[in-house]
Amino acid sequence: xxxxxxxxxxxxxxxxxxxxxxxxxxxxxxxxxxxxxxxxxxxxxxxxxxxxxxxxxxxxxxxxxxxxxxxxxxxxxxxxxxxxxxxxxxxxxxxxxxxxxxxxxxxxxxxxxxxxxxxxxxxxxxxxxxxxxxxxxxxxxxxxxxxxxxxxxxxxxxxxxxxxxxxxxxxxxxxxxxxxxxxxxxxxxxxxxxxxxxxxxxxxxxxxxxxxxxxxxxxxxxxxxxxxxxxxxxxxxxxxx
Length: 241
Fold this sequence. Notes:
Blueprint: E1 4-5, E2 9-12, E3 21-23, E4 27-29, E5 34-42, E6 49-52, E7 59-60, E8 64-66, E9 71-78, E10 84-87, E11 89-92, E12 99-109, E13 113-118, E14 123-128, E15 136-137, E16 141-148, E17 154-156, E18 161-166, E19 171-177, E20 183-184, E21 188-190, E22 194-206, E23 210-216, E24 221-227, E25 237-240
Antiparallel strand pairs: 1-12, 2-12, 3-11, 4-10, 5-9, 5-12, 6-11, 7-9, 8-9, 13-22, 14-22, 15-20, 16-19, 16-22, 17-21, 18-19, 23-24, 24-25
């Protein structure tokens, strides 16, 4: 089974004006979605929080911190959303004036049960054009988030699809929907060398199947039956031995 993208919502502040919040425009959020929020900001070395109109509770992953150059990134998620037809997602930096704030909300549908798989330790890189996370365990969905200090464009790495390239705010986010197994690395190529911070995460879509298998040797037949989520075909029948 696999994840499917829905419409992403991006909000950025690229003038360098300090603030304590950044919010999306209102959008229709369905029920039971995996919602991934990727953010980046500058200047304020504080821990942000994510809230929304629907009242969903967002889990925070490890914050990426380049305290030398004042660049930060972080990923948040909700595994199964509460719906709201006019949902607004807000990032809040309490007690700090964050600049160059970027906020991307990415909802995904899925067929089974969504779960968090892994994240790498955030990587802080020197001035280069090839930001990348460390390797981390793959799932059925991979997320990458890059914050950089120069304000340049980016091209997603092989196997990844770009979802946001907010160059004026130094923010780049991308995903991959596949099940490669093993480990993956979230990466991109910058048009201009920059100091950067890289975060990543992976998620799985797991299905459960219930059923029985009965073997009757008297008439040499095998019968199997079961049930699963929509989209999963379960066969019923018998075969001669």
